[in-house]
């Protein structure tokens, strides 16, 4: 069953309120396409449990559901605290590195030793999503003495943002490598690299995945100024990108955020890399059953710009209304998809003959009122091209014999993968596909089908376009 012809994909992060089999099922039925496992919080036992549970329910429902493992990456974090600190304005807090001891009431160690060298007297440090501000008074003997500027609690393992500072941690920490190994063992479809800083970080992730015989596609999370500076080489190197606005909005001046979002969106679509807009899309729905008008507009903007996917984080991990969030995204996306779009796909760079053949097929579909594109694709490449060109109305039905390829194609804008048996001939598959389309009211009798294929014939790949009616 294909549940919808919504073009924008929905990613939901899993957490305490969403991990039961019943809830997973409801979320899939409400329209989630990909589940995200956040390795900053999830432990290996729960991941080992969740992955087969998700696969089982998806199979039962006849849905293609992707799984994305999101690594913690080289994040600077505070260490464990026996109890939460309740910090007041003017309090003194010391950050320690290299095992230094502090005499202060409030002190905590940090996982990044170089912090003491990177930071200077007078700098402001941002902790816990930028909520807690601390001013550096001085630093000596591996202790950074700070004054609290904004009040609030400080718990264990909180994230520290250092805007503009290039952190000297490796692209993948030991924890990340262990997590990636698990992801490869379980066959997750995507692995996200947090705090990706340059193209070589992606190459390192690809190398680690290959070492563990994984097939996961790499998603580069753009979340600091380093990544923004190297954005072109990162997009070239990666399989997909995530605009991680949570950290990006702290690491960069906030008024730059919409400009950076638009730049990444344009570049990713031009180069044919799926792009995900993440964080705070429906933040107020963590507490409330309805979104703010500003949030609806933010979701609409991402859909208008033709993002491949929009992502839920806290809304579906700890929020009170996880299903309502998915329904709101589904509803807004469907409506906005019918209302027009930004012309970014017009500047797509076509490099090879197969891309040009695909464009001819997409133009043909665009010229026909009720049409769909059917793409026969072994590795998903031609289906990638079709999605990248953002056909005006025609959905892309990607036909593949490999479930793995189908699951990674589910991230692509406007793409509906269908898995068929390898042994059947093209005509037989086509009549089965037509049946599926009619049965699910996805297309009607008399509609046009533009059929693209890049199937191997003997030694070579033959690209072809065919037009027929259902
Ligand atoms: P995170 O990444 O949720 O892992 O922090 C997303 C973001 O920073 O927006
Ligand atoms: Mn982040």
In total, the number of strands is: 24
Which spans have pLDDT < 50 for at least 5 consecutive residues? none
**Percentage beta strand:** 15-25%
Count of spatially separate domains: 3
Largest sheet: 8 strands, parallel, barrel
- Give the helix/strand class: alpha/beta
- Radius of gyration, rounded? 24 Å
Overall 3D form: elongated
Distance between the termini: 19 Å
Helix content: 25-40%
CATH homologous superfamily annotation of the largest domain: Phosphoenolpyruvate-binding domains
Mean pLDDT: 94
Strand order of the largest sheet: 1-2-3-13-14-15-16-17
Ligand set = 2-phosphoglycolic acid, manganese (II) ion
Question: What does this protein look like?
Answer:
With 470 residues, the protein is an alpha/beta fold. It folds into three domains: 9-74 and 171-338, Alpha-Beta Barrel (TIM Barrel), CATH 3.20.20; 85-161, M1 Pyruvate Kinase, Domain 3; 350-469, Pyruvate kinase, C-terminal domain (Pyruvate Kinase, Chain: A, domain 1, 3-Layer(aba) Sandwich). Helix content is 36%, strand content 23%. The protein contains 16 helices and 24 strands. It has helices at residues 21-30, 44-61, 115-118, 174-186, 199-211, 225-229, 231-237, 245-251, 257-271, 293-304, 314-317, 322-337, 353-366, 381-388, 403-409, 426-439; strands spanning 9-13, 34-38, 66-70, 76-77, 85-87, 92-96, 107-109, 124-127, 132-140, 143-148, 152-154, 159-161, 190-193, 217-222, 240-244, 275-278, 309-312, 371-376, 396-400, 415-419, 448-453, 456-457, 460-461, 464-469. The strands form five sheets. Strands 1-2-3-13-14-15-16-17 form an eight-stranded parallel β-barrel, surrounded by eight helices. Strands 4-12-8-9-10-6-7 form a seven-stranded mixed sheet, with helices on one face. It has a five-stranded mixed sheet with strand order 20-19-18-21-24, with helices on one face. β1 (9-13), α1 and β2 (34-38) form a beta-alpha-beta unit. The mean pLDDT is 94. Bound molecules: 2-phosphoglycolic acid (PGA) and manganese (II) ion.
């Amino acid at each position: 069953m294909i549940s919808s012809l919504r073009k924008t994909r929905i990613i939901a992060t899993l957490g305490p309120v969403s991990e039961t089999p019943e809830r997973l099922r409801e979320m899939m039925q409400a329209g989630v396409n990909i589940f995200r496992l956040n390795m900053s919080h999830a432990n290996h036992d729960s991941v080992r449990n969740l992955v087969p549970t998700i696969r089982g329910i998806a199979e039962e429902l006849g849905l293609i559901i992707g799984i994305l493992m999101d690594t913690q990456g080289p994040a600077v974090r505070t260490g464990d605290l026996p109890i939460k600190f309740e910090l007041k304005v003017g309090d003194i807090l010391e950050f320690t590195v290299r095992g230094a001891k502090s005499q202060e009431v409030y002190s905590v160690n940090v996982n990044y030793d170089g912090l003491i060298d990177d930071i200077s007297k007078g700098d402001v440090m941002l902790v816990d999503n930028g909520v807690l501000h601390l001013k550096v008074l001085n630093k000596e003997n591996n202790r950074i003495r700070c004054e609290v500027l904004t009040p609030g609690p400080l718990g264990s393992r909180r994230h520290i943002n250092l805007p503009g500072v290039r952190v000297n941690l490796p692209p993948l920490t030991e924890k990340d490598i262990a997590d990636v190994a698990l992801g490869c063992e379980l066959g997750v479809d995507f692995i996200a690299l947090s705090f990706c800083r340059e193209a070589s970080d992606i190459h390192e992730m690809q190398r680690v995945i290959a070492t563990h015989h994984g097939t996961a596609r790499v998603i580069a999370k753009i979340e600091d100024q380093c990544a923004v500076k190297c954005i072109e080489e990162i997009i070239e190197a990666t399989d997909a990108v995530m605009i991680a606005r949570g950290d990006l909005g702290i690491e960069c001046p906030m008024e730059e955020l919409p400009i950076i979002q638009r730049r990444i969106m344009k570049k990713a679509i031009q180069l044919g890399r799926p792009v995900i807009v993440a964080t705070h899309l429906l933040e107020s729905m963590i507490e409330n059953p309805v979104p703010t008008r500003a949030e609806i507009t933010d979701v609409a903007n991402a859909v208008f710009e033709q993002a491949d996917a929009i992502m839920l984080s806290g809304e579906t991990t700890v929020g009170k209304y996880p299903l309502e969030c998915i329904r709101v995204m589904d509803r807004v996306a469907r409506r906005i998809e019918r209302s027009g779009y930004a012309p970014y796909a017009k500047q797509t760079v076509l490099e090879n003959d197969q891309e040009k053949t695909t464009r001819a097929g997409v133009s043909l579909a665009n010229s026909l009122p009720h049409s769909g594109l059917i793409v026969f694709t072994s590795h998903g490449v031609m289906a990638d091209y079709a999605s990248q060109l953002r056909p005006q109305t025609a959905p892309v039905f990607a036909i593949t014999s490999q479930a793995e390829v189908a699951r990674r194609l589910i991230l692509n804008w406007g793409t509906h993968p269908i898995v068929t048996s390898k042994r059947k001939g093209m005509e037989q598959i086509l009549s089965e596909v037509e049946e599926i389309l009619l049965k699910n009211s996805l297309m009607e009798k008399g509609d046009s089908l533009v059929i693209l294929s890049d199937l191997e014939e003997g030694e070579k790949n033959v690209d072809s376009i065919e037009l027929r009616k259902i």
